[in-house]
């Protein structure tokens, strides 16, 4: 399957509702997962994601593909919107990983499967809490934001190689904490 040129679709979306709908349909789940992974509350995530897409609409004509890809540009809007949210909040809740990913277990083969999944998620949550903020952020962008290293690098203002190193070390740390070989 051919990779879509999201930069071109974004350029057309300024005046083309069909192109805009295509952008929205493609990027909404990614932005939602990215935001939800940080705020851990679906109602709050809905509000923030709504703000992100309002800002996207407002500034779509300003998008410049020579400076960044559309995915990176939109992720920056999401990151700034999230930063604004935290700036005005006096609390930060823990991640509710159950709503971010939910592996399916065959109950007939593993009657205690859902309990095992829940315990595994709790262990993962505790392990992630032991990583630095930067490591957590890169993991969130990589796995919940579905971004590649280059997009993460552009979003965070670091090199793609640095993202790779941080990601490798963070994953190694998680494996060590979780006792995997």
Q: Number of DSSP helices? A: 9
Q: What's the N-to-C terminus distance?
A: 35 Å
Q: What is the C-level CATH assignment of the largest domain?
A: Mainly Alpha
Principal-axis shape: globular
The share of residues in extended strands comes to under 5%
Structural classification = mainly alpha
Quote the CATH topology of the largest domain: Rna Polymerase Sigma Factor, Chain: A
Low-confidence stretches: 90-105
Summarize the amount of helix as a percent range: over 70%
Written as H for each helix and E for each strand, in order along the chain, the element string is HHHHHHHHH
Give the beta-strand count: 0
- For CATH, the homologous superfamily of the largest domain is named as RNA polymerase sigma factor, region 2, helix turn helix motif
CATH level-two architecture of the largest domain:
Orthogonal Bundle
**What oligomeric state is this?**
single chain
Give me the Rg, rounded: 18 Å
**Please, what is the average pLDDT?**
79
Main sheet attributes: strand count, strand direction, barrel closure: none
Number of domains: 2
Characterise this structure:
It is a single chain. The chain has 181 residues and is mainly alpha-helical. It has nine helices and no strands. Helix 7 crosses helix 9 (160-178). The model is unreliable at 90-105 (pLDDT under 50).
How would you describe this structure in keywords?
181 residues, mainly alpha, Rna Polymerase Sigma Factor, Chain: A, Arc Repressor Mutant, subunit A, 2 domains, 9 helices, 70% helix, globular
